[in-house]
Fold this sequence. Notes:
FAD/NAD(P)-binding domain, D-Amino Acid Oxidase, Chain A, domain 2, 2 domains, 5-stranded antiparallel sheet, 9 helices, 28% helix, 28% strand, elongated
Amino acid sequence: xxxxxxxxxxxxxxxxxxxxxxxxxxxxxxxxxxxxxxxxxxxxxxxxxxxxxxxxxxxxxxxxxxxxxxxxxxxxxxxxxxxxxxxxxxxxxxxxxxxxxxxxxxxxxxxxxxxxxxxxxxxxxxxxxxxxxxxxxxxxxxxxxxxxxxxxxxxxxxxxxxxxxxxxxxxxxxxxxxxxxxxxxxxxxxxxxxxxxxxxxxxxxxxxxxxxxxxxxxxxxxxxxxxxxxxxxxxxxxxxxxxxxxxxxxxxxxxxxxxxxxxxxxxxxxxxxxxxxxxxxxxxxxxxxxxxxxxxxxxxxxxxxxxxxxxxxxxxxxxxxxxxxxxxxxxxxxxxxxxxxxxxxxxxxxxxxxxxxxxxxxxxxxxxxx
Length: 370
């Protein structure tokens, strides 16, 4: 049985960022992933938005990691030449009774350290985005978009330059807690049997199932989950907007919003579809409620203009009181297993937060090192 210092399970954007941080700290790092390419699931099935940090509860890990991660991510993009654009975002109220919600969002953002939000009157909004219909809006100038694949390629490059390695098509199928580390068993064409001093579970949608597959991991510390599928539709033709456009938030997500890719193509989504198993198919029939949602702020959306694009799945941790869940970085002080770190519930804004989460994991792992 082979021995290794650190294993990171999951080669999505967070797993790669964690692997990079550990490798650059001088650790021997192996990143394992079940798929045949990096970031095949959540990291490549999202809006590719760099979030400002507006919505999240005061003092939550989501709020802290998003604001810190946004700043770190913009710096990293500039240093590594990663395609991105600081487009700005408009959060729009389409009815007078939504204006207090915008006021609360601005207050929450300020508490979170996002102090650059500004109000736009209907006249200003008309000048900025003449195709929008709204009674008021907040402008977030630090929101943007990023090429998530280029980001992951850069993270992988840094990881490998620091001596780490990414191994694909290698699903972790089980493991066990030992006195001398964490034993892992993998499947794939060339199964591995490893004992690692440190294991970081960054398996995203599969993180809780993976935790349950490690004998000796206390089940009481593995959260219950639900999957929230988000469907996206792309706009046929040229985008009428130059910025990201979001409605006021809704239960389970941020509402059907308009995002742009770096080529200027507009897409709409995600919606919220609760599912029992991971499924990436987009039902064309789901376009109907999209039209109704989008026409609240863009009444001129033509019939037949929305085409099925792709879907992503967000993991939702179930809390006893039904409140919004936070990111969880569960180390030995939480579950009692030395050398084991779980990242649970990493959904949006996980992409924005990846470098900040990696810094926290590296610090936690460093505390555990002899």
